[in-house]
Every structure is written in structure tokens, then in C-alpha cells.
Amino acid sequence: MRTSARVQPTDVRERRTHNLFEAAATYIAARAENDQERIEEATTWVPADALSFGVSELARRAVVALARERDVSPTVVARDLLGLPTD
Predict the structure, then answer these.
(1) Secondary structure in 3-state letters for the chain
(2) Rounded Cα gap, residues 38 and 25, in angstroms
(3) Directed axis angle between helix 74-81 and helix 48-70, to 10°?
(4) CA-CA distances (angstroms) from residue 52 to 6, 21, 31, 70, 75?
(5) Which residue, among 34, 31, 27, 62, has the nearest Cα to 48 in the 3D structure?
(6) Whether the predicted pLDDT of 14 surpasses 90
(7) Higher-scoring residue by pLDDT: 30, 11
(8) Is the pTM above the cut of 0.85?
(9) What values do phi and psi take at 83, rounded to 5?
(10) Burial (CB count within 10 angstroms: exposed 0-12, middle 13-18, buried 19+), residue 28
């Protein structure tokens, strides 16, 4: 009896699953680089609400890391990044 071979995609990205943090990191990096193709790709990896959560978590972690690096409060960093007065 002959068994049929399963056809496997040759492009690893086609069959690979992505988690929400990977999607968020790719989405934000692509936005920073104005890479519309990668933006659109990342939005297909996870549901929109999961991507939104991932983006929020990435923003929180970035603000905390910058605050520690600058030795200031997260509020100062967040307002500074958005161009808001910090006083």
C-alpha cells in the first residue's frame, strides 16, 4: 500500500504561529519604520483585541525601562514621549 506524502509549506512563516507579544513587537517596529507590508502582516497574526493588549504592554514596559534608565518617573517619560509638559 502506498501512502501519500503531505505537502508542507516551504515558507516557515506560513505555518508558524505567533503570540501576541511577537505580533505587537513586529507591529510597533513596522510602524516606527513606516513598513506598511509588515504592519498588515502583524495584524493578521492575532485578533485585534490581543494585538491591542500586546501594544499596551509593550508601551508600559518601554516607559518603565526608559524611566529607570533616565532615573525619572514613568509619568515624566510618558509625557515627554508625547511632547506634553512634564510639570
Answers:
(1) CCCCCCCCCCCHHHHCCCCHHHHHHHHHHHHHCCCHHHHHHHHCCCCHHHHHHHHHHHHHHHHHHHHHHHCCCHHHHHHHHCCCCCC
(2) 11
(3) 110
(4) 36, 10, 14, 27, 21
(5) 27
(6) no
(7) 30
(8) no
(9) 75, 25
(10) middle
Measured between alpha carbons, how far is 80 from 11 in angstroms, rounded to an integer? 42
* Residues 20-70: tens digit of each pLDDT: 999 999 999 999 999 999 999 999 999 999 999 999 999 999 999 999 999
- Contact assessment for residue 43 and residue 27, using Cβ atoms and an 8 Å cutoff: yes
